[in-house]
Amino acid sequence: MTIDEIPKVELHCHLDGIPDPEMVRDIRADDSAFPIRPEDFDGLYPVADFDGFIGWWRVVESVVGKLEHFHAVLAHYINRLKQDRVVYAEVMISGSEIPVDLVEAVEQVGVFRAAAQQQAGGDLQIEFLAAFGRGKSPEQVEGVAERIFALYEAGLVVGVALAGVEPGNPVRPYQKTFERFHEAGLGIEIHAGEWCGPESGWDALEHGFPDRIGHGVRLFQDEKLIETIAERGIHIEMCPTSNLKTGSIERIEDHPIRLARDMGLSFSINTDDPGPFECSMGSECRLLSEMFGFVEADFRTIYAHSLAARFQKVLTIEDA
Ligand SMILES: [Zn+2]
Protein backbone atom coordinates (compact mmCIF):
# COMPACT_ATOMS: atom_id res chain seq x y z
CA MET A 1 0.00 0.00 0.00
CA THR A 2 1.40 3.44 -0.88
CA ILE A 3 1.37 6.37 1.54
CA ASP A 4 -1.42 7.95 -0.49
CA GLU A 5 -3.60 4.87 0.01
CA ILE A 6 -3.04 4.47 3.77
CA PRO A 7 -6.06 5.72 5.76
CA LYS A 8 -5.31 8.83 7.84
CA VAL A 9 -6.75 10.86 10.71
CA GLU A 10 -6.14 14.57 11.24
CA LEU A 11 -6.79 15.98 14.72
CA HIS A 12 -4.97 19.36 14.65
CA CYS A 13 -5.89 21.83 11.92
CA HIS A 14 -7.02 25.44 12.38
CA LEU A 15 -9.82 26.56 10.08
CA ASP A 16 -8.22 30.01 9.74
CA GLY A 17 -4.85 28.34 8.91
CA ILE A 18 -6.10 26.69 5.72
CA PRO A 19 -6.21 29.29 2.87
CA ASP A 20 -3.37 29.36 0.33
CA PRO A 21 -3.01 31.19 -3.03
CA GLU A 22 -4.18 28.24 -5.15
CA MET A 23 -7.25 27.69 -2.98
CA VAL A 24 -8.08 31.40 -2.98
CA ARG A 25 -7.81 31.44 -6.78
CA ASP A 26 -10.30 28.54 -6.99
CA ILE A 27 -12.66 30.15 -4.49
CA ARG A 28 -12.64 33.46 -6.38
CA ALA A 29 -13.38 31.65 -9.63
CA ASP A 30 -16.78 30.83 -8.09
CA ASP A 31 -17.18 33.93 -5.91
CA SER A 32 -15.37 37.08 -7.00
CA ALA A 33 -16.48 38.82 -3.78
CA PHE A 34 -14.24 36.59 -1.62
CA PRO A 35 -12.14 39.18 0.26
CA ILE A 36 -8.68 37.62 -0.25
CA ARG A 37 -7.01 37.75 -3.70
CA PRO A 38 -4.22 35.32 -4.65
CA GLU A 39 -1.86 38.26 -5.26
CA ASP A 40 -2.33 39.40 -1.65
CA PHE A 41 0.06 36.55 -0.79
CA ASP A 42 2.76 37.81 -3.21
CA GLY A 43 6.19 37.78 -1.60
CA LEU A 44 5.00 35.82 1.42
CA TYR A 45 5.86 32.31 0.21
CA PRO A 46 7.65 30.25 1.25
CA VAL A 47 6.85 31.08 4.86
CA ALA A 48 10.25 30.44 6.44
CA ASP A 49 9.97 31.66 10.01
CA PHE A 50 7.59 33.06 12.60
CA ASP A 51 7.71 36.59 11.12
CA GLY A 52 6.77 35.11 7.74
CA PHE A 53 3.83 33.40 9.40
CA ILE A 54 2.69 36.73 10.87
CA GLY A 55 2.92 38.31 7.39
CA TRP A 56 0.71 35.53 6.00
CA TRP A 57 -1.68 35.99 8.92
CA ARG A 58 -2.15 39.72 8.10
CA VAL A 59 -3.62 38.67 4.72
CA VAL A 60 -5.96 36.08 6.17
CA GLU A 61 -7.05 38.46 8.92
CA SER A 62 -9.44 40.07 6.42
CA VAL A 63 -11.75 37.04 6.69
CA VAL A 64 -11.16 36.30 10.37
CA GLY A 65 -14.32 36.73 12.42
CA LYS A 66 -16.61 35.97 9.48
CA LEU A 67 -17.58 32.32 9.49
CA GLU A 68 -19.50 32.71 6.20
CA HIS A 69 -16.20 33.13 4.30
CA PHE A 70 -14.91 29.84 5.65
CA HIS A 71 -17.64 27.73 4.00
CA ALA A 72 -15.73 27.74 0.72
CA VAL A 73 -12.36 27.33 2.47
CA LEU A 74 -13.54 24.23 4.30
CA ALA A 75 -15.21 22.79 1.19
CA HIS A 76 -11.90 22.96 -0.68
CA TYR A 77 -10.04 21.53 2.29
CA ILE A 78 -12.46 18.60 2.54
CA ASN A 79 -11.66 17.72 -1.09
CA ARG A 80 -7.94 17.74 -0.28
CA LEU A 81 -8.49 15.54 2.79
CA LYS A 82 -10.33 13.02 0.64
CA GLN A 83 -7.51 13.02 -1.92
CA ASP A 84 -5.08 12.21 0.90
CA ARG A 85 -7.39 9.45 2.13
CA VAL A 86 -8.13 11.14 5.44
CA VAL A 87 -11.16 9.32 6.84
CA TYR A 88 -11.65 11.29 10.06
CA ALA A 89 -10.76 14.95 10.82
CA GLU A 90 -11.33 17.41 13.63
CA VAL A 91 -11.04 21.07 12.63
CA MET A 92 -10.63 23.94 15.13
CA ILE A 93 -12.97 26.91 14.76
CA SER A 94 -11.45 29.90 16.48
CA GLY A 95 -13.47 31.87 19.04
CA SER A 96 -13.34 34.91 16.74
CA GLU A 97 -15.40 32.98 14.15
CA ILE A 98 -18.10 32.14 16.71
CA PRO A 99 -20.75 34.86 17.16
CA VAL A 100 -21.00 36.33 20.65
CA ASP A 101 -24.79 35.94 20.73
CA LEU A 102 -25.54 32.35 21.82
CA VAL A 103 -28.56 31.86 19.52
CA GLU A 104 -26.64 33.24 16.56
CA ALA A 105 -23.61 31.09 17.45
CA VAL A 106 -25.64 27.88 17.45
CA GLU A 107 -27.42 28.88 14.25
CA GLN A 108 -24.28 29.85 12.27
CA VAL A 109 -22.09 26.96 13.43
CA GLY A 110 -25.06 24.62 12.83
CA VAL A 111 -25.33 25.72 9.19
CA PHE A 112 -21.55 25.50 8.83
CA ARG A 113 -21.40 21.98 10.27
CA ALA A 114 -24.31 20.73 8.16
CA ALA A 115 -22.66 22.02 4.97
CA ALA A 116 -19.36 20.37 5.92
CA GLN A 117 -21.03 17.05 6.67
CA GLN A 118 -22.83 17.09 3.36
CA GLN A 119 -19.61 17.88 1.51
CA ALA A 120 -17.70 15.17 3.41
CA GLY A 121 -20.25 12.53 2.42
CA GLY A 122 -19.64 8.96 3.52
CA ASP A 123 -15.88 8.86 2.88
CA LEU A 124 -14.81 11.31 5.55
CA GLN A 125 -16.14 12.17 9.00
CA ILE A 126 -15.58 15.78 9.93
CA GLU A 127 -16.00 17.16 13.46
CA PHE A 128 -15.24 20.49 15.10
CA LEU A 129 -13.49 21.85 18.16
CA ALA A 130 -13.93 25.38 19.51
CA ALA A 131 -10.51 27.01 19.99
CA PHE A 132 -9.47 30.07 21.94
CA GLY A 133 -6.17 31.73 22.74
CA ARG A 134 -4.10 32.03 25.88
CA GLY A 135 -3.52 35.45 27.39
CA LYS A 136 -7.16 36.32 28.07
CA SER A 137 -8.37 37.15 31.57
CA PRO A 138 -10.16 34.31 33.43
CA GLU A 139 -13.37 36.36 33.12
CA GLN A 140 -12.98 36.62 29.34
CA VAL A 141 -12.38 32.87 29.15
CA GLU A 142 -15.58 32.26 31.13
CA GLY A 143 -17.42 34.36 28.54
CA VAL A 144 -15.96 32.31 25.67
CA ALA A 145 -16.83 29.14 27.58
CA GLU A 146 -20.53 30.01 27.61
CA ARG A 147 -20.53 29.98 23.80
CA ILE A 148 -18.54 26.75 23.74
CA PHE A 149 -20.99 25.06 26.12
CA ALA A 150 -23.92 26.21 23.97
CA LEU A 151 -22.28 24.68 20.87
CA TYR A 152 -21.42 21.48 22.72
CA GLU A 153 -24.94 21.07 24.07
CA ALA A 154 -26.28 21.58 20.53
CA GLY A 155 -23.99 18.75 19.33
CA LEU A 156 -21.98 21.07 17.06
CA VAL A 157 -18.52 20.78 18.63
CA VAL A 158 -16.96 17.76 20.35
CA GLY A 159 -14.32 19.54 22.36
CA VAL A 160 -12.25 22.59 23.11
CA ALA A 161 -8.67 23.60 22.19
CA LEU A 162 -6.40 26.12 23.89
CA ALA A 163 -3.99 27.79 21.44
CA GLY A 164 -2.33 31.24 21.39
CA VAL A 165 0.85 32.69 22.83
CA GLU A 166 2.37 30.14 25.20
CA PRO A 167 5.19 32.10 26.95
CA GLY A 168 3.93 33.97 29.99
CA ASN A 169 0.37 32.68 29.63
CA PRO A 170 -0.11 29.56 31.77
CA VAL A 171 -3.29 27.46 31.93
CA ARG A 172 -3.50 27.81 35.74
CA PRO A 173 -5.73 30.93 35.84
CA TYR A 174 -8.33 29.06 33.73
CA GLN A 175 -8.44 25.96 35.92
CA LYS A 176 -12.09 26.48 37.01
CA THR A 177 -13.25 26.79 33.41
CA PHE A 178 -11.30 23.71 32.32
CA GLU A 179 -12.76 21.82 35.28
CA ARG A 180 -16.21 22.67 33.93
CA PHE A 181 -15.25 21.54 30.41
CA HIS A 182 -13.92 18.29 31.86
CA GLU A 183 -17.00 17.64 34.00
CA ALA A 184 -19.33 18.37 31.07
CA GLY A 185 -17.52 15.73 28.98
CA LEU A 186 -15.91 17.96 26.34
CA GLY A 187 -12.68 16.65 24.84
CA ILE A 188 -9.82 18.92 25.94
CA GLU A 189 -6.81 19.79 23.78
CA ILE A 190 -4.05 22.10 24.99
CA HIS A 191 -1.22 23.42 22.80
CA ALA A 192 1.86 23.06 25.03
CA GLY A 193 5.58 22.60 24.58
CA GLU A 194 5.62 24.39 21.23
CA TRP A 195 7.43 27.47 22.56
CA CYS A 196 7.98 26.65 26.24
CA GLY A 197 9.70 23.80 28.02
CA PRO A 198 8.42 21.07 30.34
CA GLU A 199 7.06 23.57 32.91
CA SER A 200 4.34 24.39 30.38
CA GLY A 201 3.48 20.69 30.04
CA TRP A 202 3.22 20.27 33.82
CA ASP A 203 1.06 23.41 34.02
CA ALA A 204 -1.30 21.97 31.36
CA LEU A 205 -1.48 18.59 33.12
CA GLU A 206 -2.06 20.09 36.55
CA HIS A 207 -4.66 22.68 35.61
CA GLY A 208 -6.19 21.87 32.22
CA PHE A 209 -7.33 18.21 32.33
CA PRO A 210 -6.01 17.59 28.78
CA ASP A 211 -6.95 14.50 26.79
CA ARG A 212 -4.55 15.64 24.09
CA ILE A 213 -1.49 17.91 23.93
CA GLY A 214 -0.84 19.91 20.76
CA HIS A 215 2.80 19.97 19.50
CA GLY A 216 4.59 18.92 22.72
CA VAL A 217 8.02 19.06 21.04
CA ARG A 218 9.85 20.66 23.97
CA LEU A 219 8.17 18.42 26.57
CA PHE A 220 10.56 15.65 25.55
CA GLN A 221 13.30 17.45 27.55
CA ASP A 222 11.69 15.96 30.68
CA GLU A 223 11.55 12.16 30.82
CA LYS A 224 9.29 12.14 33.86
CA LEU A 225 6.79 14.39 32.11
CA ILE A 226 6.67 12.16 29.02
CA GLU A 227 6.24 9.12 31.29
CA THR A 228 3.35 10.85 33.05
CA ILE A 229 1.75 11.76 29.71
CA ALA A 230 2.02 8.11 28.63
CA GLU A 231 0.68 6.79 31.97
CA ARG A 232 -2.33 9.06 31.80
CA GLY A 233 -3.06 7.99 28.22
CA ILE A 234 -2.68 11.55 26.90
CA HIS A 235 -2.29 11.72 23.14
CA ILE A 236 0.23 14.10 21.48
CA GLU A 237 -0.70 15.86 18.23
CA MET A 238 2.56 16.22 16.29
CA CYS A 239 2.92 18.90 13.59
CA PRO A 240 6.47 18.48 12.16
CA THR A 241 6.41 20.93 9.23
CA SER A 242 4.68 23.59 11.32
CA ASN A 243 7.36 23.25 14.02
CA LEU A 244 10.13 23.65 11.45
CA LYS A 245 8.50 26.58 9.64
CA THR A 246 7.79 28.60 12.77
CA GLY A 247 11.21 27.88 14.28
CA SER A 248 9.91 25.83 17.19
CA ILE A 249 12.62 23.35 16.14
CA GLU A 250 15.76 24.25 14.19
CA ARG A 251 16.12 21.17 12.00
CA ILE A 252 13.56 18.53 11.07
CA GLU A 253 16.05 15.91 12.29
CA ASP A 254 15.57 17.35 15.79
CA HIS A 255 11.84 16.58 15.83
CA PRO A 256 10.95 14.14 18.64
CA ILE A 257 8.44 12.23 16.49
CA ARG A 258 10.85 9.35 15.92
CA LEU A 259 11.47 9.12 19.66
CA ALA A 260 7.69 9.12 20.22
CA ARG A 261 7.38 6.21 17.79
CA ASP A 262 10.25 4.30 19.40
CA MET A 263 8.68 4.81 22.86
CA GLY A 264 5.30 3.57 21.61
CA LEU A 265 3.52 6.80 22.58
CA SER A 266 0.07 7.66 21.27
CA PHE A 267 0.55 10.46 18.74
CA SER A 268 -0.89 11.76 15.48
CA ILE A 269 0.47 13.51 12.39
CA ASN A 270 -1.10 16.89 11.62
CA THR A 271 -0.74 19.96 9.40
CA ASP A 272 -1.65 22.66 12.00
CA ASP A 273 -1.87 25.50 9.41
CA PRO A 274 -1.57 23.90 5.95
CA GLY A 275 -2.02 27.27 4.19
CA PRO A 276 1.17 29.05 5.27
CA PHE A 277 3.18 25.86 5.83
CA GLU A 278 2.41 24.39 2.36
CA CYS A 279 1.83 20.93 3.77
CA SER A 280 -0.88 18.30 3.59
CA MET A 281 -1.56 15.04 5.38
CA GLY A 282 0.03 13.28 2.40
CA SER A 283 3.16 15.46 2.41
CA GLU A 284 3.60 15.08 6.19
CA CYS A 285 3.49 11.29 5.87
CA ARG A 286 5.98 11.35 2.98
CA LEU A 287 8.30 13.57 5.05
CA LEU A 288 8.25 11.09 7.94
CA SER A 289 8.89 8.22 5.57
CA GLU A 290 11.87 10.00 3.97
CA MET A 291 13.37 11.62 7.08
CA PHE A 292 12.70 9.03 9.75
CA GLY A 293 12.06 5.83 7.83
CA PHE A 294 8.44 5.47 8.90
CA VAL A 295 6.89 2.44 7.17
CA GLU A 296 3.34 1.25 6.56
CA ALA A 297 3.18 -0.49 9.96
CA ASP A 298 4.06 2.84 11.67
CA PHE A 299 1.34 4.69 9.76
CA ARG A 300 -1.15 1.94 10.66
CA THR A 301 -0.28 2.31 14.36
CA ILE A 302 -0.53 6.11 14.14
CA TYR A 303 -3.92 5.72 12.45
CA ALA A 304 -5.19 3.47 15.26
CA HIS A 305 -3.84 5.77 18.01
CA SER A 306 -5.24 8.90 16.32
CA LEU A 307 -8.66 7.38 15.83
CA ALA A 308 -8.72 6.24 19.46
CA ALA A 309 -7.85 9.80 20.56
CA ARG A 310 -10.73 11.41 18.65
CA PHE A 311 -13.27 13.38 20.66
CA GLN A 312 -16.38 12.23 18.75
CA LYS A 313 -17.02 8.76 20.06
CA VAL A 314 -19.74 7.99 17.50
CA LEU A 315 -18.14 6.91 14.24
CA THR A 316 -20.11 7.45 11.05
CA ILE A 317 -17.39 5.99 8.83
CA GLU A 318 -16.14 2.44 8.71
CA ASP A 319 -12.94 1.98 10.73
CA ALA A 320 -10.46 1.28 7.91
ZN1 LIG B 1 -2.26 24.66 16.45
Please outline what is shown here:
The chain has about 325 residues and is α/β, with parallel strands linked by helices. The chain has helices at about 20-30, 50-60, 70-85, 100-120, 140-155, 175-185, 200-205, 225-230, 240-245, 255-265, 275, 280-290, 295-310; strands at about 10-15, 85-95, 125-135, 160-165, 185-190, 210-215, 235-240, 265-270.
Account of the protein in words:
By secondary structure, the protein is of the alpha/beta class. The protein has helices spanning 21-30, 50-60, 70-83, 102-120, 138-153, 175-184, 198-207, 223-231, 240-246, 257-263, 274-277, 281-292, 296-308, and strands spanning 8-14, 86-94, 125-133, 159-163, 187-192, 212-215, 235-238, 267-269. The protein has one domain: Metal-dependent hydrolases (TIM Barrel). Helices cover 44% and strands 15% of the residues. It has an eight-stranded parallel beta sheet with strand order 1-2-3-4-5-6-7-8. Strand 3, helix 5 (138-153) and strand 4 (159-163) form a beta-alpha-beta unit. The two termini are 13 Å apart. The model has no long low-confidence stretch (mean pLDDT 97). The protein binds zinc ion. Zinc ion is lined by residues 12, 14, 163, 191, 214, 272. The site of zinc ion has 6 residues, from strand 1.
SSE arrangement:
Elements: E1 8-14, H1 21-30, H2 50-60, H3 70-83, E2 86-94, H4 102-120, E3 125-133, H5 138-153, E4 159-163, H6 175-184, E5 187-192, H7 198-207, E6 212-215, H8 223-231, E7 235-238, H9 240-246, H10 257-263, E8 267-269, H11 274-277, H12 281-292, H13 296-308
Helix pairs in contact: 3-4, 4-5
Residues 12, 14, 163, 191, 214, 272 line the site of zinc ion.
